[in-house]
């Protein structure tokens, strides 16, 4: 998830007086409900334990490959503490929550929860967000038999859809992200090669040839 430098200045642009009035009503309603809770209650309400998160994930995402990818990313963020999902964060205890500096500020949290694509929205965001996320999941091409998406199935490998999915992600990544994901660590590559050669039972002669080419590339 890539956000701007701050979330505090998120604003709804355009839309005229009707949009502004709708936004004011939404803000007033959100502030009224927010102030009924203490800061600690707000933080607790925004915290989701990993067990509940993975249960919900299994109920909503049919592709086992996508679920495993999410679980792996979640565990990596739990161990590293990297703020890759800011304003969300994965705690060391294994819970997903909103960073406290956003959770304890009414306007900031309201800006994160409001639907900027629809300034006239008067209902709480989670309902509309749930509908949009469900629509997004339903639009991902999946195999009828296994439920896997094309990126996590052998059918996808055979069909080779042209790499459009990763190109869409690449186009929205900044330069730093692109450099990071394309950086190959020699030690990790060697470990991956070793595991692959062992898994597929390559003969010793083939292993030696692969190692020779590895040395040619990195020396």
From TrEMBL:
GO cellular component, one term: nucleus
Superkingdom classification of source: Eukaryota
InterPro entries from the UniProt entry: GGNBP2
UniProt cross-references to PANTHER family, sorted A to Z: GAMETOGENETIN-BINDING PROTEIN 2
Record protein name field: Gametogenetin-binding protein 2
Species this chain originates from: Portunus trituberculatus (Swimming crab)
């Amino acid at each position: 998830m890539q956000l701007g430098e701050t979330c505090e200045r998120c604003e709804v642009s355009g839309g005229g007086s009707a949009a502004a009035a709708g936004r004011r009503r939404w803000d007033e309603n959100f502030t009224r409900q927010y102030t009924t809770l203490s800061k600690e209650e707000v933080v607790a309400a925004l915290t989701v334990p990993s067990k509940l998160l993975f249960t919900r994930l299994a109920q909503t995402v049919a592709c086992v490959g996508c679920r495993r990818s999410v679980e792996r990313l979640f565990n990596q963020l739990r161990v590293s503490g990297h703020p890759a999902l800011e304003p969300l964060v994965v705690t060391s205890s294994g819970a997903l929550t909103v960073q406290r500096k956003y959770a304890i500020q009414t306007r900031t949290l309201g800006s994160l929860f409001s639907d900027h694509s629809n300034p006239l929205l008067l209902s709480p965001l989670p309902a509309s967000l749930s509908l949009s996320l469900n629509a997004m999941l339903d639009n991902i091409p999946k195999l009828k038999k296994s439920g896997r998406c094309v990126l996590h199935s052998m059918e996808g490998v055979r069909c080779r859809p042209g790499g459009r999915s990763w190109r869409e992600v690449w186009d929205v990544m900044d330069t730093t992200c692109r450099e990071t994901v394309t950086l190959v660590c020699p030690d990790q590559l060697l470990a991956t090669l070793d595991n692959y050669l062992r898994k597929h039972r390559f003969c010793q002669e083939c292993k030696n040839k692969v190692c020779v080419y590895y040395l040619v590339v990195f020396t």
